């Protein structure tokens, strides 16, 4: 155990970290979710590899300046009569 690892919170130290930025965890229903060091959920995917690739893409986008505030959001309902 390195000196730096000793300073980390025990929960952070026990996970395998990708790019020293996020970890992935298999959920009970079979999907994979990635979490940042702040324990905030980032990406959910069907396989571990897709979760890792998707999280890297997402974090790269955040570094380059796009964020949720600039994304177009759509409603999931249909207006009017059918």
Structural description of this entry:
It is a single chain. The chain has a domain at 3-59. The protein is 30% helix and 18% strand. With 82 residues, it is of the alpha+beta class. Strands 1-2-3 form a three-stranded antiparallel beta sheet. The model is unreliable at 1-6 (pLDDT under 50). The relative contact order is 0.12. The termini are far apart.
How do the strands and helices of this protein lay out in sequence?
Layout lengths: L2 H5 L2 H4 L8 E5 L5 E5 L4 E5 L2 H16 L19
Low-confidence runs of at least 5 consecutive residues: 1-6
**In terms of structural class, how would the helical and strand content be classed?**
alpha+beta
Strand order of the largest sheet: 1-2-3
**Average pLDDT number:** 81
Radius of gyration: 17 Å
- Helicity, as a percent range: 25-40%
How would you spell out the order of helices and strands?
Answer: HHEEEH
Strand portion: 15-25%
Number of helices: 3
Q: Report on the biggest sheet.
A: 3 strands, antiparallel
For the termini, the CA-CA separation is 64 Å
The general outline is extended
Q: How many extended strands? A: 3
């Amino acid at each position: 155990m390195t000196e730096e690892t000793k300073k980390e919170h025990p929960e952070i130290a026990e996970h395998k970290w990708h790019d020293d930025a996020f970890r992935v965890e298999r959920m009970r229903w079979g999907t994979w979710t990635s979490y940042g060091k702040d324990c905030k959920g980032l990406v959910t995917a069907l396989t571990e590899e897709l979760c890792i690739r998707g999280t890297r893409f997402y974090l790269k986008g955040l570094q380059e300046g796009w964020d949720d505030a600039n994304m177009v959001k759509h409603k999931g309902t249909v207006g009017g009569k059918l």
